[in-house]
């Protein structure tokens, strides 16, 4: 009953899309278990770039079943557009199933997300403004709208009316017009018709596949440091991207999990606000690095903040996820640097922390990263097909990270293309 979970090990954008695409042909199903259109998972095939936001990356394989499980929050408007784009790119969406229990991001969730961010000024989280937080708030407040409600007009009307007072109050507070329920239902009607065919259970078919011995891949979005419980709260997303989230949000038993693959860039990036101890301090180097690495958001186009690999955070990530395998991406980007720094500690108030603090607010004040320097390497790595073909110092760098994290290296990515990946023995 083999379940494989793929998780982002850092603050998202580690290259999950590319790796899930490379792995998914070997699986019967790919399941998204949390998050929503805040994700942007890039796949590059034959120089063609596709970015998946809500669809599981397995949708690019002709015969892989794809599920959006109950932990996902779904924006039907954005999903329709994504499905249209998928079809225009020559792929089909026949294998997609959306759980009736997925919560729906309604237009007011998007409005409230934007308003809250605007009003927070300097204290803003820097969300993707896709309505993620407000939708998960309604879910946990037990007043949300689920996909099965959304595709049934009478159920939808009833759910909206039942909570209209609180929705209107929030909209008024945000300076937005209150709900026009009839106009909204009118807007939803064509979407209901288009999306109802995707409605179906996720847990039962997945369980049947596992009982038949077929392999299932759980595709995480965001990353461990954005986890609402284990990340740099409050600068996090509103779900549980880490491996445990695949069980709660994806409905698979922990007893079925065989592998947990953690994806890490060979350096560190973050979009949005919040602590980032190993961020590059030299502005000119930071800008040049960002350009060279193409570190611009796949969902919002924002500049990604860049820095050196944070081993303190990576060890936390390895432990909290129970990682069995590591994937290192974007190794090619580090080629040509005279030396490479790795953050091995945080100096906070005269003390050096080597363990990621559970009270991550400690990192919001003055933090000095303690670095260890390793020698760099030269050369184009983009055609390397085995570890042996990598420069000696590049291998030593990866071996150092893997030994410190206590985990074997499964794959190394040396370019955006789906074939630019080294499988490690
Ligand atoms: P995800 O959200 O984890 O799927 O990652 P994103 O798609 O948001 O960002 C990763 C970016 O890095 C994308 O533009 C990928 O095409 C690109 N990428 C992935 N792996 C590599 C790699 O090994 N080398 C290079 N140069 N680019 C890569
Ligand atoms: P993928 O799956 C990187 C960040 C936002 C913000 C915080 C909260 O592509 O790795 P939200 O809109 O979720 O309420 O924003 O989380 N964030 C991401 N950063 N990659 C992502 O997804 C992200 N999804 C959310 O920038 O800091
Ligand atoms: Mg991304």
What's the domain count?
Answer: 3
Ligand list: guanosine-5'-diphosphate, 6-O-phosphoryl inosine monophosphate, magnesium ion
Share in β-strands = 15-25%
Sheet/helix structural class: alpha/beta
Structural summary, described in words:
- With about 425 residues, the protein is an alpha/beta fold.
- The chain folds into three domains: about 5-100 and about 195-260, Adenylosuccinate Synthetase, Chain A, domain 1 (3-Layer(aba) Sandwich); about 110-195, Adenylosuccinate Synthetase, subunit A, domain 2 (Orthogonal Bundle), CATH 1.10.300.10; about 265-425, Adenylosuccinate Synthetase, subunit A, domain 3 (Adenylosuccinate Synthetase, Chain A, domain 3, Alpha-Beta Complex), CATH 3.90.170.10.
- It is built from 13 helices and 19 strands.
- The strands form five sheets. It has a nine-stranded mixed sheet, sandwiched between helices. Strands 13, 15, 16 and 17 form a four-stranded mixed sheet that branches.
- Strand 18 (about 410-415) and strand 19 form a beta hairpin.
- Helix 3 (about 105-120) crosses helix 4.
- The longest helix is centred in the middle third of the chain and has 15 residues, at about 180-195.
- The chain is globular.
- The two termini are about 25 Å apart.
């Amino acid at each position: 009953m083999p379940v494989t979970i793929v998780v982002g090990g850092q603050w998202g954008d580690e290259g999950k899309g590319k790796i899930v695409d490379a792995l998914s042909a070997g699986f019967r199903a790919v399941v998204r278990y949390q998050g929503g259109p805040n994700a942007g998972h890039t796949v590059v095939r034959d120089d063609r770039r596709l970015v998946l936001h809500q669809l599981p990356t397995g949708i690019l394989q002709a015969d892989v079943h794809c599920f959006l499980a109950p932990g996902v929050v779904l924006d039907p408007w954005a999903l329709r557009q994504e499905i249209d784009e998928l079809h225009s790119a020559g792929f089909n969406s026949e294998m997609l199933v959306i759980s009736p229990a997925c919560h729906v991001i309604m237009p007011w969730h998007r409005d409230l997300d934007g308003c809250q961010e605007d009003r927070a000024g300097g204290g803003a989280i820097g969300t993707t403004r896709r309505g993620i937080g407000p939708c998960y708030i309604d879910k946990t407040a037990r007043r949300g709208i689920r996909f099965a409600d959304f595709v049934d007009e009478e159920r939808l009307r009833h759910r909206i009316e039942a909570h209209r007072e609180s929705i209107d109050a929030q909209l008024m507070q945000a300076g937005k017009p209150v709900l026009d329920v009839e106009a909204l239902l009118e807007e939803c009607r064509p979407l209901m018709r288009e999306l109802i065919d995707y409605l179906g259970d996720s847990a039962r078919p997945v369980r049947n596949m596992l009982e038949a011995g077929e392999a299932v891949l759980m595709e995480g979005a965001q990353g461990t440091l954005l986890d609402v419980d284990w990340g740099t709260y409050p600068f996090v997303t509103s779900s549980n991207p880490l491996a445990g989230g695949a069980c709660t949000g994806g409905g698979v038993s922990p007893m079925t999990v065989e592998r947990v693959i953690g994806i890490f860039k060979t350096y560190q990036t973050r979009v949005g606000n919040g602590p980032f101890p190993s961020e590059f301090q030299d502005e000119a180097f930071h800008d040049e690095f960002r350009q060279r690495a193409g570190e611009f958001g796949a969902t919002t186009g924002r500049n990604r903040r860049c820095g050196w690999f944070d081993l303190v955070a990576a060890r936390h990530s390895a432990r909290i996820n129970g990682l069995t395998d590591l994937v290192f991406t974007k190794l090619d980007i580090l080629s040509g640097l005279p030396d490479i720094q790795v953050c091995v500690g945080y100096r906070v108030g005269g003390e050096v922390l080597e363990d990621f603090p559970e009270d991550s607010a400690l990192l919001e004040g003055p933090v000095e990263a303690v670095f260890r320097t390793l020698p760099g390497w030269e050369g184009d790595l983009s055609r390397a097909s085995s570890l042996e073909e990598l420069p000696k110092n590049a291998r030593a760098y990866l071996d150092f990270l893997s030994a410190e994290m206590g985990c074997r290296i499964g794959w190394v990515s040396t370019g955006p293309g789906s074939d630019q990946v080294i499988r490690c023995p």
